[in-house]
Structures are given as C-alpha cells and as structure tokens.
Please model this.
Amino acid sequence: MLAAPILVFQFAVKPYAAHLSRRTDDLATQQGLLSRELQVLRQRSVYGAHHGQALRLLKETESQLFLFPDEVTASAALTHHVTELARHAVVQVHQVQTLPVVSLSEELVAVEVEMRGESDFEGVLTLLHGLEFGDKLITIPVIRVESVTQGESDSGAPSVLTFTATIRGFSLPQAPERSTRSRPASHSGG
Model:
C-alpha cells in the first residue's frame, strides 16, 4: 500500500509534469515567434520602401562597376576606359598591362592595370581627376611620378613627367538573368 503512491508519483505524475513543462516552454517559444512575425507584417510597408531604395542603390552601384561576363572582358574594359581618359588628358601612354584579378568576395572582383606614360604636370593631374571623378569606381593604390628633365630647365617650358600607376576597377560578373533585368528595354522608333 505504501509503495503504490510512490510508484504512481515516480512513473505517472513526474513524467507528466516534465512533459507539461516542455509543452509550456514550446508554447512560449512559438508565441515569441508569432509576435515577431506579426511585427514584420505590421512593418512591411517600411521594408517595401527599403527594398526600393536598395534596388536603386544597387542600380547606381552597378553603373560604377565593370559588368561583364568574365574577368578578361572586364580587364579589357578597364584598359579601354583608362586609355580613353589618358587620350582626353593629352597623356602619352607607353604601356598598359593587365594584372592578375583579385577576388574580393563571392561575386565582386578587382581588375587592375599598370599604366606607364608621360605628360606635363597638367596632363597628369587631368588624368588623375578624370579617374577620381569619372563615372566608374576606380582607385589608384600605387602611383610613381618622376621628372624627365635633368638639371635646370627653361622656366617657361613645361617639364615632362613620367608616371607609373596601378589602376584598380571593380567588376561584378554579370549573370544572364542580371544582365536582362538591369538593362532597360530598348524601344525602336518607327
């Protein structure tokens, strides 16, 4: 008679109380999740505005990158971009050499070229200004400028400067679905 209540407590009441405690904890967890989901639903208009802003910023950023299907084409585009800026700055380009691509993240890569050339002081500054304030995101991690003129030069004649610069652009390899999505549909007039 004395063992029956102990056995009932040990094998019936105690497991039932533990099960009830676990169910209470599960219920509290589910209620917390539900309240967070309801809060997200209440703020969905804010998220919609943020989504639109994020898409706009992505489009602006993509226009500053070299969007090509591979790194070789992106390096060629950077080379073309840099040589065109040099031509407009009246800089004589001696050599442009592509450097190895540096992976910055899962998708973003840095494409680099090394440029050697010469010009006067104004030409070098115009090139640097065009690179810094142009429509592409470009950095110049290394630049070395030297004067070609040895000794005293005419005070009225511009001095010739040679330079070597490593110019870095950024490329986001363009997946086919991104290229069709980010380009506006062309309309042909008739």
Remarks:
- The longest helix spans residues 3-42.
